[in-house]
Design goal:
transmembrane helix; Spore Coat Polysaccharide Biosynthesis Protein SpsA, Chain A; 6-stranded mixed beta sheet; 5-stranded mixed beta sheet; single chain; alpha/beta; Nuclear Transport Factor 2, Chain: A; golgi apparatus; signal; EC 2.4.1.-; about 35% helix; about 20% strand; 3 domains
Length: about 750
């Protein structure tokens, strides 16, 4: 008995595992037997059903496999085989990975317009819904029509309605048929709720031939056949468009109709056997026919509020009123959804380990950032209604203006609105004065505000009193949007421009060695131009003593070593080496499509950065100003110790020099355009040019995107820069700050001072 008890005690921990395995195997066997017995029966559809389903759905085969229409969506492995008898050919990859994988864009929108409505209703459509649809084109039959600003127009040259519809369908298939899953066609007298249309297509399956819209009967035709009314817009799937295209010519020649939407519907029914439907896959295409002289603000019908499309819209003003009304409806729905979600969060928070103490304010917004050290503390900026006490230029006080002033005004107005909505009708608040204002940007949640307001509170009986109220507000980060950018490649040739002064001679050898090793040896598509800046005194003695003779000898050695490479130089005589003046000289000697990289003598060129220079610089769109990484003074950082060779140590033993704008990547055409505007503004005043850098020219006179970002590929060794006092006060001050902050970190400087005090005390 004791042995049995000991055996049971030893097996007790394993009993749940054994029982679980036994039960699982038993259930698996029972399920397999049921599946085998039920597999002999076949499910039959409704009696008499044949042909395509409503809306174009095709029945599946009886053995459970997908039909031929589904073959495009079945994953399959394509085996790789290369004929050994044929020469190897390099495979050209596609420009985008989604092209290689066969992905399609979601929705393409076509708007049919005419001569009478192109500059009225079409413009109203463009201003109300175009920014919601990523891909939208306008189609008209006009010849050489003048295109309104911000619209992409396709002109077919024939205003006959049937011909316009035929040419539009043919154009969509030819240019976009292989790129999109859905095609939404509407008229310019239609108001469509863009966001609702986008939601609709996300809930529809792309493996069906879809013809969805407001179904209408043909006059004197088959009572079961329907076409989609063009005034309310209709949705066509890619598969239906591909099947319809071969029959478009036949439809044009054989089908007679006055209305283009009837013609298209008859074409789809006659050749594809698919009729228009208003409901598909559980999704309804709601529409509303707008009566004459209607007031959108007074429409209370549920059918109107649920409509995806409203027709007819008689004028631009009515289009804007409809857009305002539906936007208000959508905004109210969004606020209600936010309140419902906040209530759910409150209810669920009590069930979490932290309990109600873990509930953050505002509910549903990320908690504030918690710093792990004093260096990570996000500081608050103090402001009043007239002044800001944290200025971009570093001054202690500046006038509140522009976007900052509008931001403060909106926040105060929002605070009063929230207070009144909470306390009315018992109290009504009005602002007397903003006593104190604080704001900070928290990257985890958004902009935070704390306001001390002097308010006048008025009761229902008319009694008033002054009181001080502190309110906290948050402007949360909204939905992140990807900004479309033009496509660029890494094939552009980079023209390096290196300005040199006498003070830079000690560093030229290292620059040329790195240039030869990282570009000439690797055959990178990069060229170099040297800019010798002579002082007037040195320029007079150049025939006797050339201060740049050693550099020219180094260039000659490089050209002998690399016979296919030529390194030109340009000599300039000036006392004030203004960056803009130097670029003016270089710009005139290169083609307009040249990609410049303005470098400094401490820059160590490498292929990684040159590729980023090519990718981040876009002609007529964007210029790139990298922030290089500046290593600290090794005498202060290591203090006699051996320098670490780890590749990650530079992140600790240096800093990104935000005061330096010496490096820049830009196209010559963009510089010439901005420089022309600058010349018209200042009339080539030399003292103004001496106070500007290339960054200032692009910032104030180009209108391009200025991309300024830290660049870990640009690492510069420590060197004490020479600051020219002849430059403007701002440039000289910035150079001095760069030298001071580049000495060492606070901890290194503190340790150096501590050791010095220890040495002095002994």
């Amino acid at each position: 008995a004791m042995r049995l008890a000991a055996l049971l005690a030893a097996l007790r921990p394993a009993l749940p595992l054994v029982l679980g395995l036994s039960l699982g195997c038993s259930l698996s066997l029972l399920r397999a037997s049921w599946s085998q017995s039920g597999g002999e029966e076949q499910c039959l559809g409704p009696p008499g059903q044949a042909g395509p389903l409503a809306g174009g759905a095709r029945p599946e085969e009886s053995d459970g496999r997908l039909g031929l229409d589904h073959e495009d969506f079945r994953p399959r492995i394509v085996p790789y085989y290369r004929d050994p008898n044929k020469p190897y050919k390099k495979v050209l990859r596609t420009r985008y990975i989604q092209t290689e994988l066969g992905f399609h864009e979601r929705l393409f929108v076509a708007v049919l317009t005419s001569k009478a409505t192109l500059n009225t209703l079409a413009v109203a459509v463009n201003k109300t819904v175009a920014h919601h649809f990523q891909h939208l084109l306008y189609f008209t039959g006009l010849r050489s029509a003048k295109v309104p600003h911000g619209m992409v127009l396709v002109s077919h040259g024939d205003e006959r309605p049937i011909w316009l519809m035929y040419e539009t369908m043919h154009y969509i298939h030819q240019h976009f048929g292989s790129d999109y899953d859905w095609f939404y066609i509407m008229q310019d007298d239609t108001y469509a709720q863009a966001e609702q249309v986008k939601v609709l297509v996300t809930h529809l399956s792309i493996n069906q031939d879809v013809y969805l819209g407001r179904a209408e009967e043909f006059i004197g035709g088959d009572e079961h056949a329907r076409y989609c009314h063009g005034g309310f817009g209709y949705l066509i799937s890619r598969s239906l468009l591909l099947k319809l295209h071969p029959h478009l010519d036949s439809c044009r020649n054989e089908i007679l109709s006055v209305r283009p939407d009837e013609w298209l519907g008859r074409c789809i029914i006659d050749f594809l056997g698919i009729t228009c439907v208003s409901q598909l896959q559980g999704q309804h295409y709601h529409t509303y026919e707008l009566p004459k002289n209607t007031e959108p603000e007074k429409e209370e019908e549920e059918e109107f509020h649920a409509a995806l499309a409203v027709h007819p819209v008689s004028d631009m003003t009515l289009m804007y009123r409809l857009h305002k009304h539906f936007s208000r409806i959508q905004l109210d729905r969004t606020y209600q959804e936010i309140q419902d979600l906040q209530m759910q969060i409150r209810n669920l928070t009590s069930l979490t380990p932290a309990g109600e103490a873990g509930l953050t304010w505002p509910v549903g917004i990320n908690a504030p950032f918690l710093p792990k050290s004093r260096f990570e503390v996000i500081s608050w900026d103090y402001f009043t209604e007239q002044h800001l006490f944290s200025c971009p230029d570093g001054s202690p006080k500046c006038e509140l203006s522009g976007a900052s002033k509008a931001d403060v005004s909106e926040i105060i107005e929002s605070a009063l609105e929230q207070l009144n909505s909470r306390y009315q009708p018992l109290l009504r608040f009005s602002k007397r004065q903003l006593l104190n204002g604080y704001r900070r940007f928290d990257p985890t949640r958004g902009m935070e505000y704390t306001l001390d307001l002097l308010l006048e509170a008025v009761t229902q009986k008319g009694h008033s009193n002054l009181l001080t109220k502190r309110v906290s507000l948050v402007r949360p980060l909204s939905k992140v949007e990807i900004i479309p950018m033009p496509y660029v490649t890494e094939a552009a040739r980079v023209q390096l421009v290196l300005p040199l002064t006498v003070q830079d001679l000690d560093f030229v050898a290292n620059f040329l060695d790195m240039f030869a090793m990282n570009t000439l040896d690797t055959h990178d598509n990069a060229l170099l131009t040297l800019l010798f800046i002579y002082h007037p005194y040195d320029a007079q003695r150049v025939n006797q003593v050339d201060v740049f003779a050693g550099v020219k000898a180094m260039v000659g050695e490089l050209e002998k070593r690399y016979t296919e490479v030529k390194i030109p130089w340009i000599s300039v005589k000036t006392e004030v080496p203004s960056q803009v003046k130097l670029m003016d000289i270089v710009s005139k000697k290169h083609p307009v499509d040249t990609l410049f990289f303005l470098a400094s003598v401490w820059t160590e060129i490498n292929m990684e950065f040159l590729n980023r220079c090519r990718m981040n610089t876009i002609s007529n769109w964007q210029v790139f100003f990298p922030v290089h990484f500046q290593e600290f003074n090794p005498a202060l950082v290591y203090r006699g110790e051996q320098t670490s060779s780890s590749s990650t140590d530079f992140l600790r033993d240096g800093h990104f020099d935000r005061h330096s704008f010496a490096e820049a990547c830009f196209y010559n055409s963009d510089y010439m355009t901005a420089r022309t505007k600058l010349a018209a503004d200042i009339l080539d005043q030399d003292e103004v040019l001496e106070s500007l850098e290339v960054f200032d020219v692009f910032l104030h006179y180009s209108g391009l995107h200025l991309f300024r970002a830290v660049e870990p590929g640009l690492v510069q060794k420590y060197a004490l820069r020479s600051c020219n006092p002849r430059l403007s006060e701002e440039l000289y001050h910035r150079c001095v700050l760069s030298n001071l902050e580049g000495l060492a970190s606070r901890s290194h400087l503190a340790m150096a001072l501590f050791e010095q005090e220890q040495a002095n005390s002994t």
